[in-house]
Structures are given as C-alpha cells and as structure tokens.
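Re: the multi-chain job from yesterday

Posting the exact lines I submitted so nobody has to dig through the queue logs.
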Amino acid sequence: MPGSGYGTIFRLTSFGESHGVGIGGVIEGVPAGFKLDLDLIQKDLDRRRPGQSHLTTSRNEEDKVEFLSGLFEGKTTGTPVAFIIRNKDHRSADYSSIKDSFRPSHADKTYEEKYGFRDYRGGGRSSARETIARVVAGAIAKQFLSDLGVSFSTYVDQIGNVKLNDSSFFIAEAIEANLVRCPDAETAAKMEELIEKIQKEGDTVGGAIRCVVMHPPKSLGEPVFDKLHAELGKAMLSINAVKGFEFGSGFESVAMKGSEHNDLFMEDGNTQTNHSGGIQGGISNGMPIYFRVAFKPVATIMQPQETVGRDGQKMILKPQGRHDACVVPRAVPIVEAMAAMVLFDMYLRTKANQW
Amino acid sequence: MPGSGYGTIFRLTSFGESHGVGIGGVIEGVPAGFKLDLDLIQKDLDRRRPGQSHLTTSRNEEDKVEFLSGLFEGKTTGTPVAFIIRNKDHRSADYSSIKDSFRPSHADKTYEEKYGFRDYRGGGRSSARETIARVVAGAIAKQFLSDLGVSFSTYVDQIGNVKLNDSSFFIAEAIEANLVRCPDAETAAKMEELIEKIQKEGDTVGGAIRCVVMHPPKSLGEPVFDKLHAELGKAMLSINAVKGFEFGSGFESVAMKGSEHNDLFMEDGNTQTNHSGGIQGGISNGMPIYFRVAFKPVATIMQPQETVGRDGQKMILKPQGRHDACVVPRAVPIVEAMAAMVLFDMYLRTKANQW
Amino acid sequence: MPGSGYGTIFRLTSFGESHGVGIGGVIEGVPAGFKLDLDLIQKDLDRRRPGQSHLTTSRNEEDKVEFLSGLFEGKTTGTPVAFIIRNKDHRSADYSSIKDSFRPSHADKTYEEKYGFRDYRGGGRSSARETIARVVAGAIAKQFLSDLGVSFSTYVDQIGNVKLNDSSFFIAEAIEANLVRCPDAETAAKMEELIEKIQKEGDTVGGAIRCVVMHPPKSLGEPVFDKLHAELGKAMLSINAVKGFEFGSGFESVAMKGSEHNDLFMEDGNTQTNHSGGIQGGISNGMPIYFRVAFKPVATIMQPQETVGRDGQKMILKPQGRHDACVVPRAVPIVEAMAAMVLFDMYLRTKANQW
Amino acid sequence: MPGSGYGTIFRLTSFGESHGVGIGGVIEGVPAGFKLDLDLIQKDLDRRRPGQSHLTTSRNEEDKVEFLSGLFEGKTTGTPVAFIIRNKDHRSADYSSIKDSFRPSHADKTYEEKYGFRDYRGGGRSSARETIARVVAGAIAKQFLSDLGVSFSTYVDQIGNVKLNDSSFFIAEAIEANLVRCPDAETAAKMEELIEKIQKEGDTVGGAIRCVVMHPPKSLGEPVFDKLHAELGKAMLSINAVKGFEFGSGFESVAMKGSEHNDLFMEDGNTQTNHSGGIQGGISNGMPIYFRVAFKPVATIMQPQETVGRDGQKMILKPQGRHDACVVPRAVPIVEAMAAMVLFDMYLRTKANQW
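And the result, structure tokens for all chains:
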C-alpha cells in the first residue's frame, strides 16, 4: 500500500535516495527458468544515465547494476530478483544550501510537510534518480515480452515548440542515431539546437515522448478499473515531471465525430483505422498500442530564483550543481520501461485468470 | 487483483451488468460513526442518469440506490457499505441483433476474445452503466471531504470544437444552470446547438471535462508510484470513453521554459502561480488541484456502419436503441466521483505516515 | 486492505450484518465460461443453515442465495459474481436487552471500542451469520476444483471430550449420515448425547473439525510468506470461534524426532508417510492435504451471566434468543468452503509461475 | 501478490537465498521521524544467528545488517527502509551432493516441480536463513511498539516431551539466562540435556514457543477475514518448520463448556479470566495477547537416509554439513519478530481507518 511498489504479479518494490547508498529494487513474480541477458539491462541503464553527452548533466554515474538474488546459473529461479545500483558521484556539499529552503516546483516543501523532515540531499527519494530501478525492472519485462514477439518504439516527438509530425513505429537505430532520440534527423537537429540555446540561457524546456508497441498480446487489461490504458496512464504519470498522458486519438478525439473516430473492422478481425490505440473497452485487441506522454521543463534552472526558507522568509536561490536543460531524451528508456512493466504484468494477470 | 476494485483503504468493489439484475458495489474502509446524507447520493445519481433531457438517451432508469449493509441508525458502522441500483428499463430484445456481430470501437470483440463468450446485452459489464457504482462511492467520499472543507467544481469545458476559455472554479449553480453543464451561458448555448446538430445527423461528438478542487488537504499522495496525480490519472482513464488526462499545466507545459513554469513561493508558503496543479513531487501542497479529461465521441451512432460477424463475415450494423449524441455532460458527476474517491482514499492513507 | 476481502485472484469481498438486509458478497476472479451448478451451492448453504435439527438453533432461515451479476446463460462471464442471502427471520426485539451491555466473550465491547458505536442487533457484522458468504464462494471454488479431480472430506472429529480416533478420508454419505457430521456412527452417537446433555444444562461445548483433501494439484503455495498452510491457517482462524489450527503432524510433531518424522520418498515420487500433510516448504506435493481446526464453546449460553454495562456497571445478562449448544457440526461446510477458496486461489496464482 | 511480502501498511518484501549474495528486504510504511536504535536490531539478529553455542550449527555467520535506504541523520524518513545481510560462510561444495537428489521432508522436490529447476545450494530460497529479514523488520516494529508501551515475552515452552508448565510473562533476563531460552532453570536444564542426547544420536527434535504480549493497544484487528489472531496465525505458520498455532485457550477450549470458557467482565472493563487471549471477535481488547507455536523436528539429520534422485532412482543420502539438533531456541526471536510485524501493521491500519 505505501506507494513504492508497482504491479500485481510482476511487481517492483523500489528503494533508495539520490545521495544515499544507492537505488535498488526487488522484483517479485519473475517467472522461473528464463535466461536473462544482463547486458541488455545495462544497455538501458546506459541510455538513461547522466553524462551521456554535452546535452545532459555532467553528474557522471556509471550506474552499474548488481544483482542480489533470484538468479542461479544465469536463469531466473522464480524467487524475488533484488538489485542495487550504488551511488558514486554524490557530492553532498553541493546541496547543503537547499537544506533550509524550498526549491520552487520541487518536492522539497511537500516532503517536509508530509514527513516532518526530509533528506535534502539532491531531492532524496523525490529525485528522478529513483527511475533507475524502473529501468532495470522494465528491461527484464522487455526480455519476456520480446520472447512473445512484442517490440517497442519509444522516441521524443516534441521539445519545446519543435514537433515531429509522424507517429510511426521507428526502429531503434533511427531513434538512437542522435542525442535527442528523435528518429527524424532534421527534427532532431532542430531539437538539439533548441536545447543548446536553452542550456546557454541557464533555462530548461519540456517535451513529449511517444511510445508505439507492435504485436502486443491480445486480451491484456482488466475491466473495469484496471483497464490497460488506465494502468499505462498511471505508470507514465508516476514518472517525474510528467504532466499528461493520452493514448490512441487522445485529446484530438474531443473534436471528432463518432462516424470518423470508429475503427471499422476488416475481415481478418483487425481494424481499418486505429484511433482506439490498440485498446477497446480497456482490453488490447492486438493492434499497435500507442500513447504520448507530456513532460514539463525540469524545475532546476541555472538562474537565480526567488524562494522561501523553512520559516517563510524570502531568499534568493543561487544556481548550482549540474543539471539537464532537457531531460526528455533521457526519459525515453524510462517510459519504455514502465510500458513494458505494465504490459508484462497484465500478461501474467491474464494468464492467471484463465480456466 | 482482478480489476473491479478501486482504492486501498476506502475501496469500492463494483459489480453488475447493463442488462442483468442491477449495478452495485461494496465499499470497504468507510470510517465509522459518520451520518450519511442519502439524498445527496441520490442527487448525484440523478445527475448521471439517462433521460434527463432531450439531449440524452431516452433509456429511462430511475436509478434508485438501495443500501444493503454498513449503516445503522443512519450512521456508518465501519463495516462494508454494500448497495445496488436495480436495472429496470432493460429491453433485451433491442440488443439481439448484436449477438453475433461486433460493434466497431466497442468492447464486444475484446471481451469475447478475453473470456471466450460475452454477455452481449447492451455491452454487459463493459457498459457505461457500470459507472453508477462509482457515483455512489464518490458521493460518499465527497461527504467526508466536505467535512474537511474540500469543494469540487467539475464542468464541461469542451464539446467538439466549442471550447470554454476559462479554467476557474465555478459554483454548482452555474454548472447546473444548463443541460451541458458548462458554466458559461454563451458557450453552453453553442455546445447545446452543436449536440442537437450532431444528434440530427445520427452521429456523436467528443468533449472534455475540467475538475477544480478547492482547499484540498496537504500531503496527499504517496511516493513514488502512487503519486496523487498518477492515481487521479488512472481513475479518470478507467472511465468509459476517456482518451487522455492532464493536470496543472498539462500538455501546454511541453512548450514552456522552466523559468516560466516554476511556481515561485510567497511568504505564506503558497505559490504565486499554480502550474503544478496543486501537486508537487506527487504530493498535494494545499493549492487548488485541477485537471482535465478528454472523452472520445461514443461509438454507438445512429447511422448504418460496416462491421464483421463472429466468423469474420462483413455485415451492416443498423442503428437502433437509444443513445446519447454526447455523453460528456452526464460524465461530469462520474469524473467528480472518481476524484473524490481518490482524494479520500489518499487522505486515509496519509494518516499512517508520521509517528 | 480493510479486512472484508479474502483471496488475491479468486477474491471474495463479503458484506452484511446479522439483522440488516442480508449477507452477501462479490467474488472477483471467477474464470469465465464455467457452467455453475446452483443447486450444489444451495446444498452447502443448507448444510450450514440454522434450524436443521433439534440440535441447532431454531432461528429458521431459508438462506436462499440470489445471484446479482456475473452469470449469463448459466455460465460465468469472467466478471464479478455478486450475490445476496436476505435475512428473513430476524426478530430484532430479542436483542434490545444487549443494547447497553456487553456479552462476555463476544465482540460487543471490542466493536464498540473500535468503531465508537455498534449495530447491537444479534452481533451485527461480528455474527457468525457472515459465514454464509464464505459458503457460497467456497461452493463455487469447489466446483472448479472438482473439475481438477480434487475432493474434500470434512468432518467433526471431536466434541468436548468425545474424540474420533481416525483421520482417514471419509465419503460424504458417511459424514452426512448423522446430525453431528462425524463419520463414525458410534462416536457420533456419543457426540449427540453429549450435545443434548449440554443443551439441557443451557450450556455450550467446543469441538474440532478435520479436513482431508484428496488429489490436490501439486505446486500450490507461494514462498515465503504465502505458504499454502499459512493461508489455510489464516482462513480457518478467521472463522468465528476458532482457537487453533494444525496441519499434518501438527502439535504432535513437537515430541517427535526427525528420523521418525521425515517422510521418505518412494520411487514414484510419493512419500511413504505423510507427516508433512501434503505440504513441503509451503508448497503442495500432491499427497493428501489434511489439517485440524479447534472451536471453542460458543459464548452465548442459556444461563444467567454477570456482565457490565456501557458505563462499567455490573449487570446480570439473562439468557434469551435461540442458540446452538454446539456449532461445530454446522461449521463443517464453512471449514470446507474456506479450504476450497484457498486452494483454488492458490491454483490460479500458480499459473503465472513458470515461463 | 507473489508471496515474498508481508503486511499492508508496514510491509516487508524480503529477498535472498541461503548461498547467494545475501538475505535482505525492503520495508515500506515505516512512519517518518523515528530515531531507530540500530544496536537493538543487531541484538535480535545475534539471538537468531547460528553458532551461538555448542547446541547450534557451527555455520558461523556474523549476520551484520547493512541499511541501504530510508534513514537520514539516524531517523526514518518515511521512505522504504532497505537492508541486506551478506552471506559469508557459505561453502557451496558442501551441498553439491544434493544437486540431483531430493532431501526427505525438505522443499527440494516441491521447488523443483513448481519452478522447473532449483537453486540447490543449501535450500536456496527455502532455507530458514530467509528469516533474517523478518528479524530485522520485527526489530524495527518492536521499537515503535515499545514507544506505545507494548512488551513481549517469547520463550521455549517445550522441547520433545519436556514441557514447561507455566504460561506467564517472563522477563528477558530469565529467558536469555540459558541456551534453550526457557525461563525456568530446571526445565531448561532438562531441555539442554535432551538436545545434547538427540545431537549425539545425529537426530533432531521438535518444540514449541509461547509468546505473551503485555499492554497491547486495543482495537487491533480487522473484521472479518483479517482478524488479529488470523494474521498472527498466518505469520507464525509462514515460519519454516511450524506445524500448528493456537491462541488463548487454543486446542484445550475444545473440551471446555461455555460457562467455564467465557471471560466475565470486571467493572474496569477488563476480564476476570483471559481464555480469549486478549482477542474478541478478532479485535484486541487490551488484555495480554498470548499464543503458542508448534515446530516439527528439522528435516536434516546426521544419519544416512533413503531418498530418490531426480529420475526416481533410490539413493542413500549421507549426512553432512552443519545442522542444529533443535532450532527452536533460535526461533524465539523469529516468532517475536513476526508478532511485532503483525501488531504494528494492525496498529497502523487501525489508525488509517479512523475518522
């Protein structure tokens, strides 16, 4: 119940703080007898890690995952898979200035009010560094899904006002071809340019990520509250800085008519259009699942900002530390990880309920 | 686990089908000793029920709630509150034609694939009639929240392309002043006009609902997966026909800079702006919570449509039955109910946080 | 979380009070497409109901179950199965005298302290009448298990000091051959005699029930907290008046040596002895599962008793109402129902274990 | 759902195997702002660890706990408390002989059947070494409970046929005064003698543990399935080698009459007797809670035993490794830990459900 767990059968319980010993998790419900490719897990961690390029924070964490249980002779045993990624490059001194003040649009004040005090070092538990645990669990889920023939295409489709006008499935090579993980070279170049400009201003900028899932299993999703898209939505909204979620036709459907929006069937049972985003009545129909996630600009900017101290006194918060002008490219593996966790958990739930 | 339950402490388990005995639920975790106003519950059911006006379906259900347990001498006893709303006006004959075919963009085919067969009468469990149970649970949650000083303003802010350009808190009288539940008379008139036009075409149209919550308790929301807005998002996305959810600055934040988006503190601890939508780091900060929900046009249209039968053969689905050209005005109490359920459950969860 | 639900996939949420509208429940996770035999369900209810014989309370409830959802054309649909058994013979007047006092060894005082007030009519939610809901859910679980070849033998093996010295599997006919549900005619006669004697004294007496499950599926039970016998134990201990649970060699194992207690394997993989009670490391091994449940004498006696009123004042509680001198024979279907619920839920949970 | 988690608000998810990296856990729901005494936690680990005396296994583990998250400046932060105890003295070679055979009355065969293969080193996940995680979580729960005035007296009350005829609350000094943790010196001496004799025979022997909880909070326990004693029972039965559980009058109540068994009230609201074991209707009444747990003799004996190999072939299992002739004295802190986890979780649940 307390909020650090996700999933019902395939379930991650995560732990750890930005500047503590490390970030880790325990994954229950990993089916037994599966040969895990540990390199693939590390690869996703590398896609998430800071310090990848000049566009990202210079906090330089290796983020090597260490498995603590649940594997034997390279295979899953059916028992909990625990892991930790130790924090290395944490210069706690950097954060001492925020000990007695609250950074605007961060969780500093809400954590302090909720818990009576807070681990102020780098955001503590509220730091986006927590998402490492999700990437590990998602990378494991993806390997099972891959065995079922499922593939993911997750990419940046907007940074600030620069938007990609294409919602296709793109292959990994196209997405990873540039620093912003936008599969269209021209749009990607504009995005990079924008981020560099924002970076120079000491400011930050938001963005959006699209995820397209090909060949998902049918029948995923549980009526009526645990609809597949409801779980996907919760999973995405739980990622730091996310402000919105839409699937299929999304917010555009508001202005559509039923006669335009309805997905008529073909004789093979597939649909001619896919405004439903592969989900009807909360249950996957086998068509591609696609959705889009909105990220706000991150709150830490390299400009002086007004703020208040613990006792309400006005203060000026000076910029310091190392921060991304735009986290959205690094959030791509996180969105994909959460999508994989949801789909795989739903797959196992569906299996359990069949006679 | 199986999907018909929502909430962890204040928890609704719902049951029932469109054309079975009725729709009902069991609510666990209702604190004891609270005097429930049953009329207020019925009032919300009346706001949701079909046949309210010429704009809605003529299925004429009284939708009277009957409580089965959990109340004694007018007060909650702390034990499960069970209830049922019996189905009265169900003309099963109307639906026999869809027995062997699948309606486009409905759950007919996905239910049949998931469960092997389906209750084809009016959508069975996938019918939006199921939302009655949510309205009852939400109406109970609202009474507890009202005791804490919380108030809700939930209204239609878009139908098709007609959009309200105001996201304020409006009083109930303004919202209920017209058939579309849009608090601006002029916009409301345009919306009504649009719905009448769509109705004549035998078509349907989408819309959006905004919800503004004033004076919410602080500290609601659990890091890291059960962030308050993640739970609100899941709750909204679980409502039939919902395609998107955004809170605070939402999708607009994508194109904003951090320096614009950050909510600077005032000396009283409140913030000058509220792009955060009252939620920071997943936890409420006491500022108004607001969010917006996108509804697609409903799938049942009064026009002939191509479809396929159980064996894949092409068929023409003839329009019949009684359906809303736009369900969004009737969805207002449902959105409000789910919001109340989430907030009250989170309130109870929060009680165990500090020592 | 709040305590009126049992099971994770096959999950009953029960509701209702002794003297309210009725007792009922919602069962989630019932696999779809299964033809339920409603007569078998009613038959188990009849085995539990009061007024079966001169040995039981004369409260004469028909206890007819009415299904509210989840069935279509006689088959389960995969959606929640809700049901209610209406209370008919409730003479509330009988209970008014206990309104302001607390009956010894009942839940009157603890409910009042926990909830601030209580539904004093016949124990309200704490009444053993609540077990009706379990019998319905268990009778459904038994039909699925029966399809898997599982059979149950549940019988009274002790009343007061009269003990059956046989722990075999007995057929239903033997068990149902007498009023006390003890499969040995001679022992049964002694038990009946004892109960009649106790009844004349206006007193009550305890007893024990043994349950033997033949041909259980292998691999049921989840390490490490949800061991099969731990779930069985919780399920049994949750039944009113239960004070103890033991499985396999049980409390006798305390005085045994490992060399005597170990169950050596045979070449077919079965074991020569079965001190393990069919469960090793918390997981079923396919051998018969057997356990024993201790019931205290029920608290309501037909003798005047000292008690205290709400303000602590001494009072004499006069005997009244209609009560069983020994509830153990009527508890047989309840024990069996809970066992079936646990085993079937565990069976569904197990489906997700291997890849 | 998958079985390695216990509790609803105060919730331990445990991980690890006997011969892997270590044993650990994540505890969610630890209230914030509490100063933890880490020495007290280590002290309970020391009471559980092997190699304490000549009566226990010579596997010599230090069992030092390392905290990975959830603490800041010595206090709990309200975020998950993760920890690990690394395995040090694991001589995997010792166990290679059991790779292809199944030890009698162990979990070897059931794990292999459930998961398709198994970590055969020292029992893997089924090893009682897993209980370390419980001791840590329980030691934390005990500190909160101690703050509420609760105290525990947990001791061995039977080994083989040597039984203590006293069920009082004994102080820690009396219990820890001897190697068998039986608070009566004379009985303890007989128990030690018996264990030494059994040890020489290369055999093992069972035993029983009693736990008495003084000054428990009132109102713990949730009707109807999560009765306090049902949760205690599940918790105890989930401990390796446990075969039975009884509380209050337990199995003796079977032969009692209601007029003897009922606990009459005193004017102060307490009861004259306490056959109820401090729990009425599943809810604590403030009187001492007491229960008793039966342990079978452990399965690993130092004598040759018949067994079968993976393909059913007969084999002789030769004794080896290092094992306890009686684990019951070392199980005392485990029983106490699980009791504390249940009581504290129930305390938080009760808090969350109050208006």
